[in-house]
Amino acid sequence: MTDISLPTHVLTEIDSPIRETRLTGVDELGRLAGGHDLGLAAAARAALERLTQDDSRAVSVAAATVLERTAIRVRPDRVDFGQLAPGTPRVVADVLVDGPPLALASATVTVSGAGLRAMLAGRQLRVLWQPRTEWLDGSVTVRGPAGWAEVRVTGQVAVTVRGPVDRAAVEAQLRAVNATANPAAYGPSRVTVLPPAAPRRRFGGAVLIAGLTALVVLGGVGVAWALVGPDADSSRTAVIGPLPTASAPAETAGPPESAGPAENAGPAPGATITKEALARRVTSLDKPSWVATVKAGAEPEGVAVAPDGGTVYVADQGAKVVSIVDTATRKVSEVTLRNTPRFVSVSRDGAKVFVSMYDTALSGSGVAVIDAATREVRYLTSGLMPYALSVGPDGRVWVPIHSEGRLEVYAAGDQKELGSVTVPRNPHAIGFSGDLMRAFTANHESNAVAVIDLRSDKFIGSIPVSRAPHSIAVSPDGRRVLVAGYEADAVNLIDAVTLKRTGPFPVGKAPQSVAFSADGKHGYTVNEGDNTISVLDSGSGKVTATVKVGRSPRTIGMSPDGRFAYVSNGDDGTISVLRVGE
After folding, report:
1. What range defines the domain where residue 58 resides?
2. In CATH, what number is assigned to the domain containing residue 133?
3. Do 407 and 540 belong to one domain?
4. Cis status, amide bond into 178, omega within 30 of 0
5. Which of 435, 509, 445, 505 is nearest to 475 (CA)?
6. Which of 175, 232, 374, 555 could form a disulfide with 206 if both were Cys (CB 3.0 to 4.6 A apart)?
7. Is 0.70 surpassed by the pTM of this model?
8. Would you call 415 exposed, middle or buried from its count of C-beta atoms within 10 A (0-12, 13-18, 19+)?
């Protein structure tokens, strides 16, 4: 791309013999380099590179500064997996890739380091290490039209004598799954690296279109993994044996009235980036503390947090809008929908927001698909009474159809309906263990949790649980499932590997929603009947704290960095912000 693509007035400015005029041209080139017209952006960067050799030091420094500001960046630029136990099959970290649209256009990923893999999806760079040596000192490099950025990756395997391994057969199968390049097998990340929320900078219309999102060292469609190491073979596949079908088993003071001040926003573009600690080093608290109360509509229900932690989406069923909360400023904006929103979920790259809808007469059932950047809305027609929908490990959208006893499945890219899975009545919510290639649904009227094989999308069995299972959550490591028994005032824990149930464990009254902490040490229940949150030790099921929130709390959304939880309070029209990790 050459300067000839640039506007005439910009060409005139940068070719002027007057230094101040060329400086004005540099500013204009910076605006174009950050825009959504990728041709102009590339031409602007080419002109800026030429201007770094300008005779005027002021012009050359200004051009270099703008080039750096509009280049591709990674936050953080270092991932340290620390010391791992021998036999650890893999660890995963997520890094945010930042920069203007051009930075990610046709981006490619390369890796260096035994057992190291990397995948770029949208602005999320997923780094995976399968330990094959005692030490790792490698790197992942992202290259695009706006330069390159590197993440250094280190780790160590502890030297110790290995004893007997519990559940050896299943764990051996999981290690076999590690050999495949199927991203659906990897599930939620064990380590999450995300920056603090920063003010939004928008350069115009929609973010980079999906056709330009892309990667690839190996080629492929949509998503690709970069592989290294002697046994990295993209042709290998792994098969997990049949899954067993489970047999039947037998206060703290309230928050202040007004919200406190917002926390400091993230760095402005061009500023020095502060590296964030890995989320595995964020320790969840036995007793969360209240941070703020945010006004968020007439009757908020579903809550979801964007992958970068900067936005909270709230389904306001009292006003037929989705409230959008900026976590840095706590300012709220709205997107109006054609029907009553109930629950909300966000795509894995944060580009799309999915909202289930139906009115009090159970008509107008469907799913709204909101473009997170432009806030344009399109609609999908669903079965009757779509409930707490969720995005699976491979990006597909799963929608529990409450009144029809089935799950609808939509494609990751265009949300084309792929089919449905019949489960016991009536599915309220769904959670996923990507490692085990299993999905779990809470089936309210059947008092059971359904288990689905994600390789075949087939229902393979159910597990009896406490009365009226209303919500479900899978731990970050994919090994435990937490289920809320709405009418039992209790929760159950399920081993996702053996499918054995423990509990019931008493919690508050009418537990409506559940979630896990980012480190997996705690579970949370939203107790609609007594306006509290119960905090559980996820191993023992024991309640470690009870925290007061607003009136008629409905659902809970966890920030990816593990520090905050957001609870919708239906009768107050508010969101309670809690600090859950530090």
Report:
1. 3-69
2. 2.60.40.10
3. no
4. no
5. 435
6. 374
7. no
8. middle
CB atoms within 10 A of CB 258: 7
Band (174; pLDDT cuts 50, 70, 90): low
316 and 387 share one domain: yes
Domain boundary among 184, 204, 227: 227
Residue 280 belongs to a domain: no
Neighbours of 530 (CB within 10 A): 16
Residue the block writes with tokens 């825009």: 35
pLDDT at 243: 37
Cα atoms in the Cβ-side hemisphere of radius 13 Å centred on 123 = 25
Nearest to 111 by CA among 103, 102, 120: 120
* Contact in structure between 141 and 150 (CB atoms under 8 Å): yes
Kindly tell me the sign of the dihedral angle through the C-alpha atoms of 9, 15, 21, 25: positive
Q: Answer yes or no: do 40 and 83 share one domain.
A: no
Segment among 114-118, 172-176, 287-291 with least mean pLDDT? 172-176
Number of folded domains in the chain? 4
Nearest alpha carbon to residue 342 among 361, 353, 358? 358
Q: What is the three-state SS of 304-332?
A: EECCCCCEEEEEECCCCEEEEEECCCCCE
pLDDT at 580 over 70: yes
Residue 225 has pLDDT above 60, yes or no: no
Which residues make beta-bridge pairs with 305?
Answer: 312
Encoding tokens for residue 338? 């054609």
Q: Strands 469-474 and 480-485: what pairing?
A: antiparallel
Q: Residue 131, preceding bond cis, omega within 30 degrees?
A: no
Q: Angle at which helices 19-33 and 38-51 pack, to 10 degrees?
A: 140
Determine the straight-line distance between the first and last CA of the chain, rounded to whole angstroms. 47
